[in-house]
Amino acid sequence: MNVQAETLKYFYLLFGPADLLPLDQVVFNTEAHAFPRFELGKLFKTGWKRKPRDKDGGIIAERHSSSSAQEKEQVQQTSSADTGVKVVESLAGQAQTAVQSVATGVLDVAAGAATKAAGAVGDAAAAVKGPAVKAAEKVVG
Fold first, then answer.
1. Domain boundaries, the chain
2. CA-based end-to-end distance of the chain
3. In 3D, which of 48, 55, 24, 21 has the Cα closest to residue 37?
């Protein structure tokens, strides 16, 4: 029964009035439930627009006034792509800085641990050296 309900919802959406649920403001899940669409900002637009329709729901053919409209659209797409590239480059730079900072911290900790280990080895060697020298002097002496 759920499949029939979803199918009827979709048929109503397809053949019903275009202004019932504006597709630029609503998103449907797989069960045909409508959810509000949130604006994500200039960097995350899809460029999708609902085609204009007449009062009977028929699609109105778009008129291209001149090639300047196409050129403007290409310039907007290029500037959006450039902006996206700049954002990605900025994020990559921030990530690289963070990785370098973490790596430097890890190296500092490792160097400190190595210094402490070397000091402990030196102390152990000094502790063993004294009695060993005394034992050798007894044997030789």
1. 1-44, 85-141
2. 105
3. 24
For 61, list phi and psi in degrees, rounded to 5: -65, 135
Q: Are 64 and 72 in contact (CB under 8 A)?
A: no
3-state secondary structure of 24: coil
Q: Whole-angstrom Cα distance, residue 98 to residue 105?
A: 11
Got the DSSP string for 11-48?
Answer: HHHHHS-TTSS-TTTEEE-TT--EEEPPP--GGG----
pTM of the predicted structure, to 2 decimals: 0.30
Task: State pLDDT tens for residues 68-95.
Answer: 666 666 666 666 667 777 777 888 888 7
Q: Rounded to an integer, what distance in angstroms lies between the CA atom of residue 28 and that of residue 49?
A: 16
